[in-house]
Amino acid sequence: MPGLGTSFGRGGATTFQQDLQNSDCILIMGSNMAENHPVGFQWVMEARERGAEIIHVDPRFTRTSAVSTMHVKIRPGSDIAFLGGLINYILENNRWFDEYVRTYTNAPVIVDARFQDTEDLDGVFSGFEPKEDKYDIASWQYDDMAMHGSAGRRMGSAVSGGKQDAHPGEVSQEAQNQLLEHGEPPHVDMTLQHPRCVFQLLKKHYARYTAEMVERVCGTPRAEFLKVADALCRNSGRERTSAIAYAVGWTHHTVGVQYIRAASIVQLLLGNIGRPGGGILALRGHASIQGSTDIPTLYELLPGYLAMPHKENVDLANYIEETTSKAGYWYHTDAYMISLLKAWYGEHAQPENDFCYGYLPRVTGDHSCYPMMMGMLEGNVKGFFCVGENPVVGSANGPLQRRAMANLDWLVVRDFVEIESAAFWYDSVEIETGALQTEKIKTEIFFMPAADHLQKSGSFTNTQRLLQWHHKAVDPEGDCRSELWFYYHLGRKIREKLAGSNDPKNRAVTELTWNYPTEGRLAEPDAHAVLREVNGWGPDGKALDAYTKLKPDGSTACGCWIYCGCFKDEQNQAARRKSRHEQDWVAAEWGWAWPANRRILYNRASADPAGKPWSERKKYVYWDEAKGQWNGPDVPDFEKDKRPDYVPPDEAVGEQAIDGKSPFIMQGDGKGWLFAPDGLVDGPFPAHYEPEESPVNNPLYAQQSNPVREQWPSANNPMHWSDGKPGADAFPYVGTTYRLTEHHTAGGMSRSVPHLSELQPEMFVEVSPALAEERNLENGGWATVITARSAIEARVLVTERVPDYVVDGRPTKVVGLPYHWGVKGVVRGDSVNDLVGISADPNVHIQETKAFTCDIRAGRRPRGPALRDLVNDYRARAHLPLEE
Amino acid sequence: MNTLSRASEPVAPERAVQSSPDSYYGRPILKPHVWTPFVPWYFWIGGTTGAACVHGLIARIRGDDELAEVQRWVAFGGIVTSPVLLILDLGVRHRFLNMLRVFKPTSPMSVGSWVLSALGAAVTGSLVADKVLGAPALARVCDVAAAGLGPVLTTYTAVLVSNTATPVWHEAHAELPLVFASSGIAGAGACATAFAPAAQRRSARRMMIAGAIAMGVTAREMEKRLGVLGEPYSRGTAGAFKRASSMLALSGVALALIGRSSTLANRVAALLVAGAGVCERFAVLDAGKQSAEGPKYVVHQQRETLQNGERKPLR
Amino acid sequence: MELFEPTAASAEVATYGERAQPRKGFFTDTTLCIGCKACEVACKEWNQLPADGYAFTAQSYDNTGELNGTTWRHVAFVEQPQKSRWLMESDVCKHCTHAACLDVCPTGALVRTEFGTVIVQEDVCNGCGYCVPACPFGVIDKRPEDGHVGKCTLCYDRLRDGETPACAKACPTESIQYGDLDDLRRRADERLEKVRADERFTDASLYLRGPDDGIGGAGAFFLLLDRPEVYGLPPDPVDTTRDLGKMWRRAAYAMAAIVGTIALCSVGPRA
Fold it and tell me: Which residues of B touch A781 (CB under 8 A)?
């Protein structure tokens, strides 16, 4: 389970973009925020103008670097070494926020004596089972606490389905803390001296992440690293706060989740979570990627981060038992789940039939994005709805994606224009090389034109969990229809066909509440009605105003418990549009943020254990003794009247079991987790591992890459050997991919628009002058970039904005590749993802596109079968199987 | 135009993209003029027409009536052709009448449009008065008016181009009217030399020779004073026209001097001198283009002004 | 006749009488620009301008290259690795106090509006092209599609409805600020002081804040971190109409020379 969720309790950004203006220092890493979040970036600029230090740590000098106060270079794929260096710096120099760390984190907790660190086992943690490439996490537990449930199977280990923009950090915690009976864990050492306490383990784990090591691994000059470390520490504490912003530059790695975990540890040590100007901002790549995990398009989750039942969860009781935590708000899982079933099955959902729990599908294996494509390739997946994505451009290993889709019986593509995923059967590199032949592709493709956001009403849930409503401006043209229309009427037609069927298996469909009112010429379902169902209603049929009102007795219905309150007072709260100039800076009356319209999560931590603001300058939410409640400009992320000195009685459960000075109320122990005893499959502490394809051996451990990363080695997905193996030198450069302001993801929405296309008309590659010299590349000329997957051509931009590196004593050069182009649209070009192989993070199955190895040469790529010959030539030199 | 220039912009092979201290990737700071070849032709024809009107009146006063008739027809040809050339150059041709929508003293083109129109009326009026109405007095009044407006028509085009940001034009605003005046004199002289009877072509020959020489001298003077800014006159298309102009003028003058009594020699010389004038106008137009396209000319001249303290530096 | 009034813009605005508005303009603060080009796109969308072509220039991230008849906002990208800088600047028509384009326009198609801005009346312009070389900034240009010239109108139509110009509205970082010119100038002065306090930006300057320069100051002025020519801007732009009297004087000499020369050539007995 992902980085932010395991660390703090919820998988959403801990803060909101407007709050960045209060920061004294902002570390932007794994993100090119000015280019990809230009609107939110205004708050970074605001902070800079107020005197904040803006630090951009990035492999390239980008538009973000240009307006930051400091740019620090880092080799792609080495961020954990850098962040580990920060952790080490904080610990070695006594720069941590002592009172915060002792009280609000699990630093004092004693860990199981069986736990062994990477320091002890040279790169792996205890419990590693090499034969299965996975960990038994039993030894990672808190001392004296028996592991509950089965170690191997992970309840609801949230899966982002390989979406390009999904973040490992964004999925919330569910039911991870079932081991914690209540309140504080059993053994603590408040002096932080016990050799097995989390604090000492942390110290030991990061002891080798020195500034020298950072320079060796990351290629970051030591002095620059120290400047960053000092700036962060100087700007943290009672009087000052620092924020960290990241995006997919951190998540597209085989250790992506651990990148975010490392940042979480930094922020917990510095006391920056839950406070104004602090926090970790997970920047999303789409208008509603947050929304698409809240009400998920993921196979392993139900709305509100409820786990999708596994095949072992035979009945509701079993499901509830396995997913309920004794302490914290996950104690009420039954209320959330039963309310969801009531929203879906209405009167059919009754206690005697388990509220129709039996109708839900069960998880039987990994059905995330890449296994699904592998399934197509093997012929096991016959049909595919391709909606809101363009896999043949946007997913790793384009050639594999196209071959997989060419193996389908049927394919539905819904998009604004005929995107590459709808056209691959007649227009693609494989058709050009002869690897696929149009007449032999049996896939029947249905292209359904989609309505855009101006042609439909609905909500976006943005990067900061904020629901914002958009109203329809015009009816869609021609056959274009909204997603809501499509699924509503598809469901309606299926139900019509099944009407009268007595087959019990059809009841899952026939008993659904499917009664949304429609309006207008096109019979567009009323989006408000959907939002109201998402919000839920009580026994009186009135919209509920808070998830605390949900009941496990079937008297309430709620489509997504964390969204409960978004239709409070029968008003669409997401449609609120009160200008920020007419309210305080928190702007609580603009849109609606989950949960409960909170803008900064864990904001109890903005006050000290006694409930007083840490400082006047950083005052936010605090205990008002006179009123007997928590006050502040935001909705307190705490029970409003729970006193700071509240100590839970022994029998307490749920939120009652969390004491008055534990701000992380979704965690079973109420603490921020420096050490994650549960929830992650690849280690309780982040450790630096090299990317799957790396030019160097891991300077830190004998273990080269994440030992439990996901791999799909085959002739269709050959991965390069890393340093030291024969053939590794065929691909001497580090490739990295990124986006440009001017285009949107796989290009369907931007390469079809002339005004955007003219701004970045051609696929290009950014290289340093030294690399240009080495490979005879000319600025403005052409280059071909080659991997074992394919070769693409691009125009060359020779720029000193791409630095050269020395990694572990070896000169290392970087090839920078924007990802946006494909064969369709006003402007066309080769796709970067054709170069990238598939390997993935084991927690969230997100592919590694930010660091791989490649070669580059001057000139355009060969056409037709000659392209295959070129790639095969490289495969032969790289000791990899040849393409047929 | 812009689209084409952008699309066809050759990417200069260079090591790396990098700013330069005195330009933005060598891109033009100014826009070059967008006039078609109709315009330099008009410049020459208009210049010749203006001088022809003056010459015509003086000839008339002297009693060289045949010479005066020749210049009258030259001028008439000029004032008929000129608007056609100008209209052909317009981006929205059917709006040519908008040229007379306002009278704008700050716009030499507006002034020129009115002058051309008035001159057209005068030349045509003179013709009509003489040939149709049989009113010689009225015709003379028209001739005087034409002779008065003629020099304006000959020189306003120099003011027109000088009153632009194009460095090679604006910085030559002192000399350019003289260049155009000389060329106009030479043009009118050449026309009359070609068509006037031998007995009355002395003044025309003198004008042709003197004008051609003056054109060369004033143009050289102009280029010398322009210094670096005058560079375009020795480069590219402008340089070629410039060389052609000099050679044509020289050979024309030489031929006129050698074959002074031969009508054929005089006619050929007239053609050569006329060609020299046309080439000079083409050279001026193309030099303007180069000058605007080369950011160094703009920056050089403006930096110099700033350094010499001729203008207060920016805040 | 005085061809070059010292306060061209305000005098022209005054002719609107009661409809006259305080002079409006842009203050483009390049220190806040993140190079997102939202201004370029918003401008083209609002003003219904076509794309200009799809060519990769290899000139940093700038693929539109220049202002012209159909590109009215243009973001320049200046890579200065020696200084670890990447300067970005959103360029636009300057709406000069002394506007050369307006001065030389023979048809009256270019006019000063009640807001003190300069616009092309597209239904009047006949495409004579005179304003094109006249503009000291290379802003205005002939449009190949329809023959007349085009340039930024400061969104005249939006201004009349009390709206902010599209580019300023779209700018996420307030690099493009729109407002009353007097206010903007005050703000810019304060801003310059603050920026210069940073040792990296001691060279910062206000470009065209006026009125001491050759165009009498601009309606759209800039805070620059380097010399203007580095951004493709002229260091000392001039509305050459200022020198028009001098030019006509030289032309008058030449006219006299024409008459004199021809008269001299005509001296002598008739044959």
Answer: 13
Could you say which of A61, A757, A764 has the minimum Cβ distance to residue C86?
A61
Q: Kindly state the helix (H) or strand (E) to which residue A28 belongs, with its residue range.
A: strand A25-29
Which residue is listed with tokens 């008002």? A624
Number of DSSP helices (H) and strands (E) in chain B, helices first = 11, 0
d(CA B242, CA C261): 24
User: How big is chain C by its Cα radius of gyration, in Å?
Assistant: 21
pTM of the model: 0.94
Which chain A residues touch C56 with a CB distance below 8 Å?
761-762, 764, 780, 795
State the Cα–Cα distance between residues A466 and A779, nearest whole angstrom. 43
Cα separation, A848 vs C24, whole angstroms: 51
Q: Is the omega angle on the peptide bond into residue A595 within 30 degrees of 0, that is, cis? A: yes
Residues B40-59: tens digit of each pLDDT: 999 999 999 999 999 999 99
Encoded tokens for C187: 């703000």
Is cis: bond before C211, omega within 30 of 0? Answer: yes
For residue B58, which of B184, B253, B200 has the smallest C-alpha distance? B200
- Indicate the pairing of strand A852-858 with strand A733-738: antiparallel
Mean pLDDT of B148-167: 98
Cβ distance C58 to A800 less than 8 Å, yes or no, reads no
Q: In this structure, are residues B207 and B185 in contact, taking their beta carbons and an 8 Å threshold?
A: yes
Average pLDDT for B188-211: 96
Residue A766 to residues A34, A695, A856, Cα–Cα distance (Å): 18, 19, 11
What is the crossing angle of helices B263-293 and B202-226, to 10°? 20
Which residue is associated with the tokens 């320069």?
A: C213
Give residue ranges of A with CB < 8 Å to any B CB.
769, 772-773, 778-781, 797-800
Q: Which two tokens stand for residue A150?
A: 């089965």
Give the angle subtended at the CA of A537 by the CAs of A536 and A541, to the nearest 5°. 150
Rounded Cα–Cα distance for residues A633 and A6 (Å): 27
CB burial class (10 A; 0-12, 13-18, 19+) of residue A411? buried
- Return the number of other C-beta atoms located less than 10 Å from residue A346's C-beta: 15
A623-646 burial string, b = 16+ CB within 10 Å, else e? beeeeeebbbbbbbbbbeebbbeb
Beta bridge partners of A172: none
Domains of chain C: 2-238 (3.30.70.20)
> Which chain A residues are closer than 8 Å to C86 by Cβ?
61, 63, 65-66, 801
> What is the chain C residue with the closest CA to B85?
C128
Minimal Cα–Cα distance from C193 to chain A, Å?
13
DSSP B12: P
Which chain C residue has its CA at the smallest distance from A35's CA?
C36
What is the complex's ipTM, to 2 decimals? Answer: 0.95
Q: Are strands C149-150 and C141-142 parallel, antiparallel or unpaired?
A: antiparallel
**For residue B22, what are the β-bridge partners?**
none
**For residues A799 and A770, is the Cβ–Cβ distance under 8 A?**
no
Scored b (16 or more CB within 10 A) or e, B155-167 reads: bbbbbbbbbbbbb
Query: H helices within C223-243, ranges in order?
Result: none
Best of C78, C87, C89, C107 to disrupt the B interface (most B CBs within 10 Å) is C107
What pLDDT score does B313 carry?
43
Give the residue-averaged pLDDT of A445-464.
Answer: 95
Q: Which residues of A touch C53 (CB under 8 A)?
A: 758, 761
Q: Are A713 and A34 in contact (CB under 8 A)?
A: no
Separation in Å, CA of B293 to nearest CA in chain C: 10
Q: How far apart are the C-alpha atoms of A854 and A730, rounded to whole Å?
A: 8
Residue A580 at interface with chain C, using a CB cutoff of 8 Å: no
* Contact yes or no for A814/A734 (Cβ under 8 A): yes
Say whether pLDDT at A170 is over 60.
no
Residue C101 · residue C119 · CB < 8 Å: no
